[in-house]
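Hi R.,

As promised on Friday, here is the backbone we talked about, encoded as structure tokens. Could you run it through your design pipeline when you get a chance and send me back a sequence?
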């Protein structure tokens, strides 16, 4: 089992997200107050901190110094368990991971790794998520 390290929201797309201690996650929509919410398949972004191991050494300082672009930063789960098709419980919410990474990779800052290793998906069950809440893989495609 993992946990939620940080939560980030932004009312506008394309800007660095603001840290919050908790957030209401809305079924079929995304995070309350976040510009990426809507009726589409990338309502929520999750970044497993373990993916930082995949950042080339020459990019690491730049990635770590940039602001957050993902909604949830999580730790304690294997990257393999966080595959497309898995269901995650984050606090009271349930998220279905549909994609790993984006269609187009970014080359600068935090988006460098999030565009490659971020998990993106839909809210299947809404609820409150707080920093420190448990993150549990409820189902993986092979289970």
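Update: got your reply. Pasting your designed sequence below so it's all in one thread:
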């Amino acid at each position: 089992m993992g946990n939620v390290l940080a939560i980030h929201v932004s009312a506008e797309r394309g800007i660095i997200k603001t840290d919050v201690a908790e957030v209401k996650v809305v079924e079929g929509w995304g995070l309350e107050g976040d510009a990426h919410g809507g009726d589409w398949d990338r309502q929520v972004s999750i970044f497993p901190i373990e993916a930082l191991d995949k950042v080339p050494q020459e990019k690491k300082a730049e990635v770590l110094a940039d602001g957050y672009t993902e909604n949830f930063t999580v730790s304690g789960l294997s990257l393999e368990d966080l595959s497309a098709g898995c269901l995650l419980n984050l606090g009271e919410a349930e998220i279905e991971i549909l994609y790993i990474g984006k269609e187009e990779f970014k080359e600068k800052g935090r988006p460098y790794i999030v565009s490659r290793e971020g998990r993106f998906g839909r809210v299947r069950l809404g609820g409150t998520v707080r920093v420190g809440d448990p993150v549990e893989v409820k189902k993986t495609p092979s289970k």
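One thing I noticed while checking it: The chain has one domain: 2-139.

Thanks again,
M.
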